[in-house]
Amino acid sequence: MDQVFAPWRIEWVEREGGNDDVDGCVFCAFAEGDRDRDRDRWVVARSERSFVLMNNYPYSPGHVMVIPHAHTGDYRDLDDEALLDHARLKQRTFDALDDGLGPDAYNAGLNLGGGAAGGSIDDHLHTHVVPRWEGDTNFMPVISDTQVIVEAVDDSYDRLREAFAEQDGAEVTGEDRAVVFSE
Ligand SMILES: [Zn+2]
Prior knowledge:
- By secondary structure, the chain is an alpha+beta fold.
- The chain has a single domain (about 5-180), classed as HIT-like (HIT family, subunit A), CATH 3.30.428.
- The protein has helices at about 25-30, 40, 80-100, 140, 145-165; strands spanning about 45, 50-55, 65-70, 105-110, 125-130, 170, 180.
- The chain has a 7-stranded mixed sheet, with helices on both faces.
- It starts with about 25 loop residues before the first helix and ends with a strand.
- The protein binds zinc ion.
């Protein structure tokens, strides 16, 4: 039974230099955070009310989370604007992954309600988007070396950021900043 595919259970764990200065909810801190630290924190794209964050411990290359700014663990709390914004950013994320990494398929799922859902950040809902390749397996046991994982995520970050930057409506305001969609 240890082969069950359950990337949603992977904890988003503190990464040295990434969120060591954050008190409270990391997703809220990153939502409002210093844009010049986006690259350092692996925030790859931002819309008006959501953002895309690389997973620190990817299930597969390009594993990201699409996170609404609203701090809630209940999907029903999101208003129409937040729902649409989050959904559109997910569409852009699939496009960026297609162009940047070209996987064969995706698994995408919502983590709700913190610990009760096996989620990572208490009470701040987020969608995991996990690219899949034919015959893939959990990437983590394959590359368990931390430095290799960091390099792999950095590489995925660059490819995705470039792909987001080429989309209609993309704004790039700095080398270390996430791509912004403000429409
Ligand atoms: Zn939060």
